[in-house]
From TrEMBL, chains A, B:
It holds the Pfam family Aldedh. SUPFAM superfamilies: ALDH-like. The keyword Oxidoreductase applies. Catalyzes the NADPH-dependent reduction of L-glutamate 5-phosphate into L-glutamate 5-semialdehyde and phosphate. The product spontaneously undergoes cyclization to form 1-pyrroline-5-carboxylate. It catalyses: L-glutamate 5-semialdehyde + phosphate + NADP(+) = L-glutamyl 5-phosphate + NADPH + H(+). GO terms for biological process: L-proline biosynthetic process. It is an enzyme of class 1 (oxidoreductase). It is found in: Cytoplasm. This is Gamma-glutamyl phosphate reductase. GO terms for molecular function: glutamate-5-semialdehyde dehydrogenase activity; NADP binding. The gene is proA. Belongs to the gamma-glutamyl phosphate reductase family. GO terms for cellular component: cytoplasm. It comes from Parablautia intestinalis.
Length: 414, 414
């Protein structure tokens, strides 16, 4: 097996080739890779079957088995995703700013690839193709470390991509897979700072925490979402119920789902009975504070509940006396992901937008819209919950950096 | 002494106040702080004297003593810097982008403060005022950890700033100093992720490496510069000499000084004798490869020399056979800071601009222009050599993040 350092060197060499590729060459390759994935789907499915069999044998949770499983349809979905990325505007080469200094220097701020991106993810084989596509279109080499349970699948997908690239005359080291199930290798990968410019963990809170704690490579934190809906005293209660049901139940296992509800005391008697019936239809468990419990049946909410990302049919509820109290509660417990206020009052809406500290702050809409596709980016590598570099949904532009190109005619500093 | 966690909590509370300040309030406070520094300069100088005495007693290098020393003039310089920051455009509140989605959602990308910024720096007391000014104007709370040798000076400056802020009705926790000389406290500070959004180390390579290795807070790497001048075969040799002398000798101890020279073989016989004489005037030691040694007197350059940031009157020199070889050498040895090509050939110039991996890439100009003031940013917190978030000179904008503010009228995701 090649060592990690060798993978790093390969990627670092590939990045210089990739940054020079024309948009046409990149798009042609993305289409070729998409076709290859469909053409070679038999081979990929056969390898995937090995992962599934191993997973079943070790008693993996059915939900995880489902996440791991590939089908012809899912492979077609991966190919479709790559073709969509080919259709997106190429971010590379854009002159972001240009200005002339009094001494005659002309300074251009040019958008350039990040270089080498590392992605650490759990056992979702589709991420292998998705991550390659986004990194490749934005001119980056990528080193992938997928979940151990998907190793056969990831290796098959990566091999197909590399073969297709080679046939197009493109360096196959545009994508490399760390084909190891050794945790120590993952730890070592996080310290491959000499070769890797950016590391993105995609997965649960545990994975992300481990990467943040151990990486020496700059990291973008993605994904954990303890998202709130706040129903203001000036809310349209029917709209509130509709948005809460959507944000809580439309898809429970995602980071932009609602986990906690704040209700202004003035509307609790009107809102809660109607909301209770609506949540009941989805068998959502309610954990409320005392004032909520005075109106509807619920379990008591603990301090710990307010900080939980349930990813389940459970919601915590708390009453507040003002928009200020709601904002303070959110800023204390949230994960800086997505927050929404339901109100017809413009002043409270602006206050909430300005003062809540989160990547995406909404007025009268579901938190579920925090998504690269819903934002119109055409793609998404993840949702950043940190403030450095990128915040919220990350598309192609968020996988780029810039450089200053400066032209002179002999200027020296005085 | 207050614990670090308490400082973190104070800063986190202050950030919500600071993000709400109007531009006028911020500017008024900056002027008030500038006046206070001048008014209280006696008190600051008395405290600085304690640091100087301790430094002299322990035999500190005269260069470091000079860096540590404050004078009336230097304090006036700090005050002037704050007044200049007050004159700069406030980056906060800018709507960077705004778009409407087909479902009617209006998405605004708004520039917001980073929140809490941590700065770790060496024994230069002026950084205390500079860093406060830039963080404050960009709406951030700042926690400072200055060099232990400057503790009395830093405490005096911070006290004056805090007093002046309080008198203006602004939270004094806009700036806090970690008043400890214990290295373990600095290590703990680097892991104060719950309260600090961004950590910027300012100083030598050792400090920066330590922060990158140990911080769990997102870091922006600044400062180390192994900068090259490449004299192409199509160079104007007089211009080359002028730029090399400027880049090497105008100020030797800075990150944008030239440390290494690459010379196309075709011009070495013409360039080197003239350059030798010019460098000799500054007593610059030359370490060259064999082909350089055939033309001028020099010490032999080792492999290690090519990777060195001398910060001294020393320069390494290497001949190359092509612009491609020059680019490959630079990409192998540089620190991604500033690189320049001297050429009259447009094709080679564009090749160099595109393919050299560095924050600032120049044609026919000195590397010494990599500087926030020279770029017209009006200020500088440091020069980033990483690709995440900010690259090259960092001004006020680079101390900000953004959030998405999204307005709907009841939209739910289907």
């Amino acid at each position: 097996m090649e060592t990690l350092v060798q993978l790093g060197k390969n990627a670092a060499a590939a990045k210089y080739e990739l940054q020079k590729l024309t948009t046409d060459a990149k798009n042609r390759s993305l289409f070729a890779v998409a076709d290859a994935l469909v053409r070679e789907s038999g081979r990929i499915l056969a390898e995937n079957e090995k992962d599934i069999a191993a997973g079943v044998k070790k008693g993996m949770h059915p939900g995880l088995i489902d996440r791991l499983r590939l089908t012809k349809e899912r492979i077609n979905g991966m190919a479709k995703g790559l073709r969509q990325v080919a259709e997106l505007v190429d971010p590379i080469g854009e002159v972001m700013e240009s200005f002339k200094r009094p001494n005659g220097l002309i300074i251009e701020k040019r958008r350039v690839p990040m270089g080498v991106i590392g992605i650490i993810y759990e056992s979702r084989p589709n991420v292998t193709a998705d991550a390659f596509g986004l990194c490749f279109k934005s001119g980056n080499a990528v080193i992938l470390k997928g979940g151990s349970d998907a190793l056969y699948s990831n290796r098959a997908i990566t091999d197909v991509i590399r073969d297709a690239l080679r046939a197009e005359g493109i360096t196959e080291d545009a994508v490399q897979l760390i084909a190891s199930t050794d945790r120590a290798v993952t730890q070592e990968f996080m310290r491959l700072k000499e070769y890797v410019d950016l590391l993105i963990p995609r997965g649960g809170a545990g994975l992300i925490k481990s990467v943040v704690e151990n990486s020496t490579i700059p990291v973008i934190e993605t994904g954990t979402g303890n998202c709130h809906v706040y129903v203001d005293e000036f809310a349209d209660c029917d709209m509130a119920v509709s948005i809460i049901i959507n944000a809580k139940t439309q898809r429970i296992g995602v980071c932009n789902a609602c986990e906690s509800l704040l209700i202004h005391e003035a509307v609790k008697d009107k809102l809660l009975p109607e909301l209770y019936d609506a949540l009941n239809k989805y068998q959502v468990e309610i954990r409320g504070d005392e004032k909520v419990a005075q109106v509807i049946e619920c379990k008591p909410a603990t301090e710990e509940d307010y900080g939980r990302e349930y990813l389940d049919y459970i919601i915590s509820m708390k009453t507040v006396a003002s928009v200020e109290e709601a904002i303070a509660h959110i800023n204390k417990y949230n994960t800086k992901h997505s927050e929404t206020i339901i109100t017809e009052n413009r002043e409270n809406a602006e206050k909430f937008l300005n003062e809540v500290d989160a990547a995406c702050v909404y007025v009268n809409a579901s938190t579920r819209f925090t998504d690269g596709f819903e934002f119109g980016f055409g793609a998404e590598i993840g949702i950043s919950t940190q403030k450095l570099h990128a915040r919220g949904p990350m598309g192609l532009k968020e996988l780029t950096s810039y450089k200053y190109a400066i032209k002179g005619d002999g200027q020296i500093r005085l």
